[in-house]
Each structure stands twice: as structure tokens, then as C-alpha cells.
Design goal:
The complex is a heterodimer. By secondary structure, chain A is an alpha+beta fold. Chain A is built from 3 helices and 4 strands. Helix content of chain B is 87%, strand content 0%. Classes of the chains: A alpha+beta, B mainly alpha. Chains A and B meet through strand 4 of A and helix 1, helix 3 and helix 4 of B.
Chain lengths: 92, 251
């Protein structure tokens, strides 16, 4: 699975991580819908950690499309309200 | 409803797909795609230059404000040593405001520096990807049939397209932030032009409109605190302090 963190490049993650990432994504959507910024921040950093721990940065000569594009690390809560909606970043 | 990732990749995909569908000759598509990528790279360079310009402007303001802080502090000491407490208070109020603005400016300069670094790093990454695309397109043109080439081009074009779109997004965010800072910088400039940080001795100790507004803006407690500290300092050896010496020269 190829994941891009906006502004930071692409990472190759084991396919098993898709379920975990999707779960975090869905919970992040729920947190945003409830206006729970603290909860969202926590989930968002868990998503970034998952990418940092399990992911390997793609070489610059690999021209591949990402399966998932995560927003910029420093996303504001107001921006998150526009991004983490419905099925989230990862459609179910 | 897809989020940012979804929205962004949908836009890129449809744009690239339209481009690929329209082309009758894959080789032509490749050359056109490459040309577009090179154009995008030029825009990135311009975007980075804008960030640098904004940063320089803020740095210049910051330097001016630093000078104002020093000057107003000196003047407060002079006023106090001459027994003019109201004037000393005015100078300290202005100094407090200048310091607050200075902190905010320095923070903004730091943020812009971070953005500049990130944009520069991303520009280099994109440059490498585009170079890679250029190599690949020559290989594809030479080795594959039209139908096969179409598929291969699709893959490579989507990869580079995503990289470009992402950099475009980063630039948009940098521009938005720079715009906010520009507004803030203009506000500080207006204060400067109104004489807020000017030489208070030119006011002659009286209170004007600016001062009344300042009183509302600055923290009275901080000014009181600094004033009493200054009094203590001057009380201990005020007669020989450089500030007083200078005050005498100016008087």
C-alpha cells in the first residue's frame, strides 16, 4: 500500500496496515463530527506514527500513484472539518 | 464523500485521463506532459521566491522594531532620571507594544523559514521525478507499441501528476500564510507611519491620541512593573548611569 503524507512524500506500507489506518481514519471522522479536537489530534498523530513506524520512503525515481493521500501534518482543526468527512480519507 | 486525499486524486486523475484519452499519439502526449511538468517547476520557483521576499520584508521590520525597543528603553530611562514619570510611562508603553509585535514577527519569520525549506526540498524531489519521467518517456516511445505505451504513460503520468498536485497544495498553503503575514506586516507599518514607535521626546511629554490608544493596547501591569524596576536601578546609581549622561547631552 502506498501512502502519501502531503508535503512529505510517499511511503510503502505493508498491506496489513490498511485495516488499522482505515479504523483510525473512521474514528478521526467521528471525532471531527463531534467537534472533539483533542480526540482528533490524538488519532491524527496515531495515523502519522503508523506511517512513520511501518512505512519506507519511496525512492525519487519511483513514479507511482498513491492509494491514500493524507493531508499535511500541520492540518488545522478547521481544515480537518473539510477533509475528515463521510467515509474519511479512505473510502470503505 | 471523499476527503482531501480523495478529492485531490480525483481531480488529478480526471485531468490526466482526459489528456491521455485525447491524444492520438502517445509520444506526443508524453512530450506534452513533460513540457507541462517543466512549466510547473517554474511556478514552484516563483512561489519560493515570493516566500523569500515576504520573509525579507518581515526581517527588515523586525530589525526596525528592535531599534525602536532599544531607543524607547533609553528614552524611558532618560525621562525617569529627569523626573518625568508620565513621559517614561509613555515610552515604556510604546516599548511594550513594540516588543509584542517583535515577538510575533520573529515567530512568523521562523514559520516562513520552515516553509521555504520544505518547498525547496519538494521542488528538488519534483525535479528528480520530472527528470525520471523524461528518461522513461524516451524508453517508452522507443520500446512499446502504442497500446502498451498508453498504459505505461498512464502510470508514470499519474505518479508525477500526484507529486505536482501535492506541491501545488503546499504552495497554496504557503501563499495563504504569506498573505496573512503581509496583512499583519502592513498593520505594523501603519503603526510606524502613525509615529507609534517614534522618538517620544518629540512629543514633548504631552499625551496624544496615539498614547490613549496605546494605553488600551498595552498591559498596564507590565509597564508598572518595568517602571518600578527602572526606578530601583536608577535609584541605586542613577547619577552615573550612561542613560542619564546621554540625557544630559540631549537636553
Amino acid at each position: 500500500m502506498i501512502v502519501r503524507v502531503s508535503g512529505e512524500g510517499q511511503f510503502r506500507l505493508p498491506d496489513e496496515d490498511a485495516g488499522r489506518l482505515n479504523e483510525l481514519d473512521n474514528r478521526a471522522v467521528a471525532a471531527v463530527e463531534q467537534g472533539d479536537e483533542t480526540g482528533f489530534r490524538e488519532l491524527w498523530s496515531q495515523m502519522l506514527e503508523l506511517v512513520a513506524n511501518d512505512g519506507n520512503a519511496l525512492d525519487d525515481d519511483e513514479l507511482i500513484e498513491s492509494d491514500v493521500i493524507l493531508p499535511p501534518r500541520d492540518i488545522t482543526f478547521a481544515e480537518a472539518k473539510g477533509e475528515f468527512t463521510g467515509e474519511g480519507l479512505i473510502p470503505d | 464523500m471523499p476527503g482531501l486525499g480523495g478529492r485531490m486524486s480525483t481531480v488529478i486523475k480526471s485531468k490526466i485521463s482526459r489528456l491521455l484519452d485525447r491524444a492520438e499519439d502517445p509520444g506526443e502526449t508524453l512530450d506534452y506532459g513533460y513540457q507541462k511538468q517543466v512549466e510547473m517547476l517554474q511556478n514552484v520557483k516563483k512561489g519560493i521566491a515570493d516566500v523569500v521576499t515576504a520573509k525579507k520584508r518581515l526581517q527588515m521590520q523586525s530589525t526596525k522594531l528592535e531599534q525602536s525597543v532599544v531607543k524607547l528603553d533609553t528614552q524611558a530611562r532618560q525621562a525617569l532620571s529627569q523626573g518625568n514619570e508620565p513621559l517614561a510611562r509613555t515610552a515604556l508603553e510604546r516599548k511594550t507594544l513594540a516588543q509584542t509585535e517583535l515577538q510575533s514577527l520573529d515567530q512568523q519569520v521562523k514559520e516562513l523559514e520552515g516553509q521555504q525549506e520544505q518547498l525547496t526540498a519538494n521542488e528538488q524531489k519534483l525535479r528528480q521525478k520530472i527528470e525520471q519521467f523524461r528518461t522513461k518517456k524516451e524508453v517508452i516511445k522507443a520500446q512499446y507499441s502504442a497500446a502498451e505505451a498508453q498504459v505505461k504513460i498512464g502510470e508514470a503520468a499519474h505518479g508525477v501528476g500526484e507529486e505536482m498536485a501535492d506541491l501545488g497544495l503546499a504552495m497554496q498553503r504557503a501563499e495563504d500564510k504569506t498573505e496573512q503575514m503581509r496583512a499583519r506586516a502592513s498593520a505594523v507599518e501603519e503603526l510606524e507611519q502613525a509615529g507609534t514607535f517614534d522618538d517620544i521626546t518629540q512629543l514633548g511629554g504631552g499625551e496624544d491620541d496615539i498614547d490613549r490608544q496605546l494605553r488600551e493596547l498595552t498591559s498596564g501591569a507590565q509597564v508598572d512593573d518595568e517602571l518600578s524596576k527602572m526606578k530601583a536601578e536608577l535609584g541605586q546609581g542613577g547619577g552615573e548611569s550612561p542613560a542619564l549622561e546621554q540625557g544630559k547631552e540631549n537636553a
